[in-house]
Amino acid sequence: MKNILYTLVLLVSFSSFGQTAKEYFDLAMEKFDKEDWYGAIFEFTKAIELKPDYDTAYNFRGLSKFKVTDYYSSISDFRKAIKFGADNREWLHYYYDNMGGAMLRLGDHKGALNCFEKAIIINSEYANAYLNRGNAKWNLDYPLSEVCEDYRMAAYRGSRRAEERIKNQCN
Question: What is the 3-state secondary structure (H, E, C) of 33-62?
Fold first, then answer.
């Protein structure tokens, strides 16, 4: 009986040693999708430990931290995602948009505006960046015409939230 328990302990121990950064990332995404933010943060951290330049892991860990209102730490993760994913044209606009969202929550509206503008430069079809840029401009007391133009650009690209903003703020 002792030998069976010892063998089981060894098998469980060795099975966790062989996990790759991708496997930890996939496990983290399962937790992220279930809104287990702290579990996701833990697993994304393991993925990053194995692959320190894992830009998408930094991004999703940042989003998980955002969800638990750890905005400063999420911004740090988004900065690392941007640093390591500077050539990742598929995801880079998301990294900037996400960082801008955290900055908005902290009241850094100018920093957020800068992030949203970078996201738009990278992907001019990304509706959420226009919506968020409009929100930043609203908070910075830009002329209503400029705010509403961003909301219209977002709505044109399919944002339902932008349509609501136009209805409530621009008419």
Answer: HCCCHHHHHHHHHHHHHHCCCCHHHHHHHH
- Which residue type does 165 have? R
- Ordered per-residue pLDDT tens for the chain, 171 residues: 555 544 434 344 444 567 999 999 999 999 999 999 999 999 999 999 999 999 999 999 999 999 999 999 999 999 999 999 999 999 999 999 999 999 999 999 999 999 999 999 999 999 999 999 999 999 999 999 999 999 999 999 999 999 999 999 998
pTM to 2 decimals? 0.88
Distance CA 81, CA 99 (A): 10
Residue 14: CB atoms within 10 A of its CB come to 9
